[in-house]
Every structure is written in C-alpha cells, then in structure tokens.
Amino acid sequence: MTYNILVTGGAGYIGSIMVPELLQAGHKVTVLDNFLFGQNSLAQLCADPQFDVIRGDIRSEATIKPLLAAADIVIPLAALVGAPMCTRDPIGATSTNHDAISSMLKLLSNSQLVLMPTTNSAYGTGDAQNFCTEESELRPISKYAMDKVEIEQALMQHCNAISFRLATVFGMSPRMRIDLLVNDFTYRAVTDRFVVLFESSFKRNYLHVRDVARVFLHAIENFDKMKGQIYNVGLSDANVSKKELCERIQTQIPDFVFVDAPIGKDPDQRNYIVSNAKIEATGFTPKYSLEAGIRELAKGYRMIRNARYGNV
Q1: DSSP states of 7-41 as a string?
Q2: Could you give all domains of the chain from N- to C-terminal order, each with its CATH number?
C-alpha cells in the first residue's frame, strides 16, 4: 500500500537518506524544510513526480496546516538537534522541538499516522548498571533531551503513533553532520590522526543513518502491530565506550592515536547501555555495522574538509 507522506525537516541529515527510500518504496512524499544550512541535498529528487518540496517553517500554522491535511503519514524530523545547538538557541529549540510538534499533534485526525524519532539520550546515565529498556526511568540531561521527553509523552496520546528512541546516528549523508560522535571521531582519525578522550569509559549505543530510514519503512509496513509503542533502535553489538569506539576506528586507520585526558570532564554526561530487543522482536534487524560505517566515513572524508575558515 502506498501513502501520501509529509516529512518535516526532510532535507536534513536523516531526511536526505530517508526521503529517497520512501519514494523508492512507491510513496508520494512532500518535504517541508527551512533549509537552515543552505543545503540542496534533495536536488536529485526534483525530477520525480511523486516528490514535492516546500520551503517553510514548521512553527507557522498557516504553512503546516494544509500540508498536514493532505498527509496519510507524518514523519516529523524537523528539529534543532543536539545539546550544543539547543543550548545556543534555547528559545528556538523549545519553539521548534516542543511547541511546534505539540501544535502539529493537535491538528491531526485520529486516522493519520505519526512516526517520530525521539532519542535514547533521554536515559541520561541509566540505572546502577547503566542498562536501559523502554521501561527504564528517563533522566534527560540536556535541554534537547528534556524537550524530546515531553513531546514523546504528548505523541503517545495520539492513537496512531510510534516513537523511535534512536541511538546516536552515524554514516554519510548528502546533508552531512560531522559533529555526531562516530562521525566526529572518524573525521579526527582521518584528518588529525589523534583525539583526546574525556571519561573514555562512558558508553552509548549507535545506529547507521540508513538503518534509521529502514526502521521507518519497517514501521509503515507493520504499523498495525507496532502502533502505540515506543522502541529503542540501535545496534545491539554497538553498546560501546568512547575508548572502544576509538579502538574500532584504529583497526581501520592504524596510525590513529587516542589518549585519556588526565584531568577534565566531558560536558556530555550520557552513559548507558541500551536494549534493542523490543524492536528486534518485530522482525527488524539493522543492516549496517559500526565497522562498515567507519569504513564508509573514512572514504567520504576524502571528499570533505571542515575548513571553511582555514587555508588548507
């Protein structure tokens, strides 16, 4: 079955991978994006008659209301993503990540489907063993995670909703983000050959950006048995510490050096091990390994240099 799908923020890091996959699956896709970063990451899709794109802000009801009315499925990707960005612009973060989504949910009918990425960063430091399932207490540390926790509660009041608590995403995308941890460390390994680690034992879970697209397609195909639920989504064999991540990068980039800082504290205090058993029980298995992602990134960074204000 094919659907009319609205993807807000569809020209971003995740959307630039997801939207082509939705079109390939036969769906009609409309993207709403404010193109904050001046990207043209969906340019290759403009020849597809099943694709449409609107430049606009999800905070504008006049913009979003008619787009919602035409949609069978809504995938709200638009957000100010990550703790540093939300700290820099807390008002914009709240109005985009919380208020706009809350208003959007009120405009939806009960028959419309909503598939939304939230974040497993809401677990903070987990329990005494740092182990987290979907039933674990949420201990969000950053403003980004706090807003996501609140909006997830509102989301789950909608009768046709699914929340995906995504692990830290990695991999190449047409709208690249180098600031994500795997992407960042691999970039440093390729360009600088070293990194200094703060609290290197802190663990996180990881997920390839293409597997994010795959889990949304999986949910569309299995919506009736998955709706009304929250799912952690990550690689079960990639609950690794920062030091272990560096060791995996080093196997592919042997001259990469990493050292533990003797003093100092990481401002990001997340430290958790995440169970992905619930999503796996629905038949979803990630396809892209952490090692494959590191290999992909190392290749991609031959093309990218994050040196806008440098001479080299």
Answers
A1: EETTTSTTHHHHHHHHHHTT-EEEEEE--TT---T
A2: 4-170+207-235+270-287 (3.40.50.720)
